[in-house]
Amino acid sequence: MAVIDVEISEVGPRDGLQSIQPIMATAAKKAWIDAEAAAGVREIEVGSFVPASLLPQLADTTELVAHARTIPGLKVAVLVPNFRGAEAAIAAGAHKITIPLSVSETHSLKNVRRTHAQMFEEVARIAALIKSLPAAQRPHFEGGLSTAFGCTLEGVISTRQVVTAAEQLMAAGCDEVGLSDTTGYADPRAVRVLTQAVWAAVGRDKLTGIHLHNTRGQGLACALAAVELGLFTVDASLGGIGGCPFAPGASGNIVTEDLVFMLEAMGLSTGIDLEQLLKVREIVRAALPAEVELYGFTAAAGLPKGFRAASVTA
Ligand code: ZN
User: Fold this and answer.
1) Whose C-alpha in 80, 123, 132, 314 is 20 to 30 A from the C-alpha of 302?
2) What secondary structure letter does DSSP report for 102?
3) Each residue's pLDDT tens digit, 1-53
């Protein structure tokens, strides 16, 4: 596979869908995953191992992991809330598992009913389980620093809180940490400050990715700041789905198509065929209820005349 400058991690099937009530058929999710991988997307977060009673939309994650694993070269990522979820993810064969830790302990208590100490215990148990596996079967284990840029309950989250949480996640056995703007509070300066602070604490190779939301229209600006700093993996969702149901008009994650357009136009290769990616919207559109909005400026405006992508596709 060709070398790429920036890796896009498609999180639509997980982060995008989790706030959407009507359940998307498993066959449609598979078609979506297939089509994105065919367009050149190399990492897809296909679901989350939360109890089906809590999140029926993601109840088919085991089946989606098994399916996605058959696609050559695709890194299959999942979210896990706890040890039990990690066990299921490992049994299913996920390549990358992320456990989100709310840097805001108030948010952690409200969301997963666990203190930080309890969360680090879960992380340590998961790390031990991974260590017990043969090397070839060990998934990459990431600790996600949720609410890193601010919390809807606590408000401001200090850089020190984020750095401490990153250090504790690494001490508990994560392979790396990721910055996550769960609430859409980030701005480009905050991206720079937090990335550099976490790098200084745990090492540059222990923070390589960022998860952003476009809630206040800052998604691409933050992504640009992250990429210019040297973060390699940026999460995005097709059509920007997954907006907050309480903030009408606010898209969810960064729109994958717009992010790919920005990077490719800048001469940064993502390995993704943008025209092919834009066509994936039809699959997702057809599988979602009409009231769910698909966002994206590139899809609306089309590619500029004479546009040349950085990724040379065969
Ligand atoms: Zn998110």
Assistant:
1) 314
2) E
3) 789 999 999 999 999 999 899 999 999 999 999 999 999 999 999 999 999 99
**Given 151, 174, 222, 244, the catalytic residue:** 244
Distance 149 CA to ligand 1 centre (A): 12
pTM of full prediction above 0.90: yes
Whether 212 is in a domain gets the answer: yes
Picking from 237, 218, 277, 296, the residue whose alpha carbon sits closest to that of residue 20 is 237
**Residue 197: which domain range?**
7-313
Beta-carbon contacts of residue 305 (< 8 Å; ≥ 6 apart): none
In CATH, what number is assigned to the domain containing residue 28? Answer: 3.20.20.70
Residue 222 is among the residues annotated as catalytic for this protein: no
Q: How many CA atoms lie within 13 A of 83 on its CB side?
A: 13
Whole-number Å distance, alpha carbon 130 to ligand 1 midpoint, is 25
Place of tokens 């098994």: 66
- Expressed in angstroms and rounded, the spacing between residue 83 Cα and the centre of ligand 1 is 21
| Residue 2 domain-assigned (yes or no) | no
1: in domain: no
Q: How far is the CA of 180 from the centre of ligand 1 (A)?
A: 7
Q: Is residue 150 part of a domain?
A: yes
The number of distinct structural domains making up the chain is: 1
